[in-house]
Each structure stands twice: as structure tokens, then as C-alpha cells.
Amino acid sequence: MTSILPVSPLSATILSVEQVEVFYEQSILALRGVSLQVRQGQIVALLGANGAGKSTTLKAISSLVRAERGEVVSGRIHYLGEPITRSDPSALVRNGLAQVLEGRHCFTHLSVEQNLLIGAFVSRPSRAEIKARLEKVYGYFPRLRLLRKRLTGYTSGGEQQMVAIGRALMSEPRLLLLDEPSMGLAPQVVEEIFDTLARLNRDEGLSLLVAEQNINLTLDYAHFGYVLENGRVVGSGTAQKLAGREDIQNFYLGAAAS
């Protein structure tokens, strides 16, 4: 496992979520006053069982919740000290906030490299910069270099997850949101992906907010964590502290802790 560097408690806060509530279709309350923060250079775990509100939290931050007829009805979200509640998602990407959605959402009829290039379009870099970004992605995911001409639909689930992460990296994010990156993948592939995320955090200073059901895996790599249940934060603390709390392992996360 790739080691993570400690983060100073004096590090600047890159993301702040304060008492956020989200409704879907003006009737279903999905988040009930969620508050959390991510400091510069941190890996923060967002833990909870299926339906706890993890995906909605990430989509509220990235403003993608509106695409699912959801709305942030109260609370505040700040990124780099600026309010971003209900911001334009593409503007957030240009400003360094990117998300890897649950289920990968690759364009299966396009090649691996074409999928990666899509990630650079929003920020409109020069050709030289695009080439440099591609080389960086291939450096972290060397398997993608070998598969760059292959249609993404003919790659494995783990390779598609690498494509999805690489596509997000092509926008040069400062903060990367990941939704269930381990879902449906073999343990060996999951460890490879999390090792790469830890390297990105260590080498590039990339901040990460990772939503996961797999508590033990994620806390192995995280600095800090929050536990969600029924749209509320019901626990928080350092990764080491949360990993040692049997009540969270057994009650809040149930089978996801196994």
C-alpha cells in the first residue's frame, strides 16, 4: 500500500460544506444538514451504507444534483473560500473541482485516449498542455497507454475506472470527488487504484473526497472521515480514530464493513 503523508491541521480549507439540505423533486429530503470540510492535501473518506446520502453530497458539491431534479434548499458550500452553492458545473471544473461518478460513465464507443481527451475540453488547454496532461495520466496509469487505441467498451471494469479517473485528471483538478471507486472491482484492482490515488495525493498535492461503502479499505488511505446515515453526519474523526470505533464498523456501516 502506498503511504500517505500527514496533513498539517493548519492547512487551508479547500472545501467547506455547512448545514446543507437537498430535496429531490421538491418532496424527498435526501440530505439533512450535512457539514464537512476538506483541507488542502487531505484524503477525506465519506462513509456510509447504500442510500446514506454519499452520492447526493458529492453531487450537491459539484452542482450535478440539479441534473437529477435535486436542489440544495439550504446551507452553504465554499470552495477555495468562494461560495459555489448552485454554481455552473463546468465553471467548477474550470476552477479545479472535478468528480468521478459512480458507475464510471465512459463513452464505450470511443477509444481510451478519446475518453481522456474529453476531460480536457472544458478548460481549453493548448495542444502542448493536452499532450503533457496525457503523459501525466499515462504515467499514473501505464495500462491506459497500452490500451489508448482500444474502444473503451472492450476494456475491463477496472480499466474503465482508470479511464474515468484519468479523464477527470485531464482537467487538472485541485480537488477530486470520487463516488464508489471500488464498486464491482476485484480486490487487487481496487488496491491498485487506491494506491494510485494515494500517489496523486502525495506527489501532486491533490485533495480527495472519496465516497465509499468499503470502510476498512478507504480508512487505510484517508486522513479523515465522515460517516453518513439517512442523510445526516453521524460520526467524524481521523481515519485512525474511525477505524477503531466498533460501533461505527458494526452499526452504521453493517455489511459494508466486512
UniProtKB/TrEMBL annotation:
Pfam family of this protein, just one?
A: ABC_tran
Annotated InterPro entries: AAA+_ATPase (IPR003593), ABC_transporter-like_ATP-bd (IPR003439), BCAA_Transport_ATP-bd_LivF (IPR052156), P-loop_NTPase (IPR027417)
BP-aspect Gene Ontology terms: L-amino acid transport
Residues covered by the ABC transporter domain:
15-255
In Gene Ontology terms, what is one molecular function of this protein?
ATP hydrolysis activity
Q: Which UniProt keywords apply?
A: Amino-acid transport, ATP-binding, Nucleotide-binding, Transport
Family recorded in the similarity comment: Belongs to the ABC transporter superfamily.
Name of the protein in question = Branched-chain amino acid ABC transporter, ATP-binding protein
- In which organism is this protein found? Pseudomonas syringae pv. tagetis
